[in-house]
Write a structure and sequence with these properties.
alpha/beta, TIM Barrel, six-stranded parallel β-sheet, disordered N terminus
Length: 274
């Protein structure tokens, strides 16, 4: 008899709980959904991208005009209104010249005009410090940003042996060097004093959105944040090459990391002054 009563009580409790438990779309469920809904991407706090690879078919970035247009349209959703494309100039792989870049830019600009896209497009170059760089420097053929600003890329393997002297010589000749993505050069991670020495000697730093997004890995993000903390970030570039890069930036712009980085950098970078 006792077991029978306990059995009836158990059934009654289960029935009662099913009646009072919130339905899938009750107020409680709606409230939970409200607080857990997906964050919407924010706009960038600058309108000019000085480092990306959207000129078609001349480096490891966009392979054709259609892809370039798709990438640009994604960038415009971030608030970008002006792009200064920066194709690689690298000995033996991407030996681009002004003429090659102008031709690719003309194709892209023609398509943008057909589409009625108001983007302001121009180009400079991402100049790898190598033998071709030295030849172009000697011949007066370095390709710059407005104001004689010059995007300078180190090797990823080791620091160029003559880097300090080269950066000094560039400034003597009237160039304003900008080291691109210094946070990606792993040989500086254990020698952070080099960042300070290079920056204080007059070379500006441009970090990548993709580094801040964690696209390359934890180390690049950590060092990018270190450079922000030390007040050594002067420019930001997307370094956009392909859709996967854009996907990472989309996700980043919807993150709390972006809010934190924006608070630290807004008003301190100079992209829109170029």
């Amino acid at each position: 008899m006792v077991f029978f009563v306990l059995f009836i009580l158990t059934l009654w409790v289960k029935s009662f709980w099913s009646d009072v438990r919130p339905a899938p779309y009750s107020n409680s469920a709606v409230m939970f959904n409200f607080f857990s809904r997906k964050r919407e991407p924010q706009k960038l706090f600058f309108k000019t991208d000085i480092h990306c690879h959207v000129l078609p078919g001349i480096d490891d970035g966009s392979p054709d005009v259609d892809t370039s247009v798709e990438l640009i349209e994604r960038m415009q959703k971030w608030g970008i209104e002006r792009i200064i494309a920066s194709p690689h100039i690298t000995f033996g792989t991407f030996e681009n010249t002004d003429e090659i870049m102008d031709g690719a830019m003309a194709q892209l600009q023609s398509r943008l005009t057909e589409l009625g896209n108001p983007l302001r497009l121009s180009h400079s170059a991402e100049n790898r410090v190598d033998d071709l760089f030295m030849e172009n420097f000697a011949a007066g053929k370095l390709i710059t940003l407005p104001g004689n600003r010059l995007l300078v890329e180190n090797s990823f393997i080791q620091e160029p042996w003559n880097l300090d002297q080269l950066l000094f010589d560039l400034q003597v000749k009237g160039f304003r060097p900008i080291m691109v993505h210094p946070e990606r050069y792993s040989y500086y991670y254990g020698h952070k004093e080099r960042y300070k020495a290079i920056h204080e000697a007059g070379t500006a730093f441009q970090i990548n959105l993709l580094s801040l997004a964690g696209h390359y890995g934890k180390d690049e993000k950590r060092i990018a944040e270190y450079l922000i903390e030390q007040g050594m970030v002067d420019y930001i570039g997307s370094d956009l090459h392909r859709d996967s890069h854009a996907d990472s930036i989309d996700k980043y712009l919807a993150s709390k990391d972006y809010e934190r980085h924006r608070a630290a950098l807004e008003g301190r970078i100079h992209n829109d002054e170029i």
